[in-house]
Design brief:
Shape of chain B: globular
Structural class of chain A: mainly beta
Mean pLDDT of chain A: 94
Low-confidence stretches of chain B: 98-102
Distance between the termini of chain B: 34 Å
Number of helices of chain B: 0
Order of helices and strands of chain A: EEEEEEEEEEE
Distance between the termini of chain A: 39 Å
Number of helices of chain A: 0
Largest sheet of chain A: 6 strands, mixed
Mean pLDDT of chain B: 90
Number of strands of chain B: 11
Oligomer: heterodimer
Strand content of chain B: over 45%
Largest interface: A-B, 23 and 27 residues
Strand content of chain A: over 45%
Largest sheet of chain B: 7 strands, mixed
């Protein structure tokens, strides 16, 4: 019940296309859902995050869509660029326990 | 100025040796972590310290021992290294890691220390 399931494992998108990465969770007590971006040779860095009181959060070309009833959330990257090529991790946590539960990661490659 | 710095960045050693990885953060955060990232990129939390006190100790072999001399430093010592210990080890810190009022556990990671055991 503590798991966060992330898909796909890898994704190849053409430049200018939309990249979509999905995550699903079981524990309804989770109330904070961040996405982290990791470039090769670097540590993960927070990209964007959402709370379950909103269904969507947008920051530039990055959007989180959140479906509370389905217990799913997804990251959409619009107008994907080669510089977006990285590994993306979703995660979840709850206020009573700040430990982040991580998805398995998605390696995204944007082809020029 | 590097917010979370780890040393060394690369470590190559023989099986059976003992090695340490050091981590320092200059963000004034209260909580620090060690994560292990395997070859498949999976992130596994190992330990977490809040104000020098151990708060998370996942199922990790007792060959791994964290030490936090103060809240800005968290070192990882590994005894009797095994082939399966080869991985990238990340140090991270957060302000609201435990008991924070904002509820947003934003982690700042170091660049990682790649350990190769031969």
């Amino acid at each position: 019940q503590q798991q966060v399931k992330q898909s796909p494992q890898s994704l190849i998108v053409q430049k200018g296309g939309i990249s979509i990465i999905n995550c699903a969770y079981e524990n309804t007590a989770f109330d904070y859902f961040p996405w982290y971006q990791q470039f090769p040779g670097k540590g993960p860095a927070l990209l964007i995050a959402i709370r379950p009181d909103v269904s969507e959060k947008k920051e530039g070309r990055f959007t989180i869509s959140f479906n509370k009833s389905a217990k799913q959330f997804s990251l959409h990257i619009m107008d994907s660029q080669p510089g977006d090529s990285a590994t993306y991790f979703c995660a979840a946590s709850m206020d009573s326990n700040y430990q982040l539960i991580w998805g398995a990661g998605t390696k995204l490659i944007i082809k020029p | 100025d590097t917010a979370v710095s780890q040393t060394p960045k690369y470590l190559v050693t023989q099986m059976g040796n003992d090695k340490s990885i050091k981590c320092e953060q200059n963000l004034g955060h209260d909580t620090m972590y060690w994560y292990k990232q395997d070859s498949k990129k999976f992130l596994k939390i190992m330990f977490s310290y809040n104000n020098k006190e151990l708060i998370i100790n996942e199922t990790v072999p007792n060959r791994f021992s964290p030490k936090s001399p103060d809240k800005a430093h968290l070192n990882l010592h590994i005894n009797s290294l095994e082939l399966g210990d080869s991985a990238v080890y990340f140090c991270a810190s957060s302000q609201d890691g435990w008991g924070g009022v904002s509820g947003a556990n934003v982690l700042t990671f170091g660049a990682g220390s790649r350990l190769t055991v031969l």
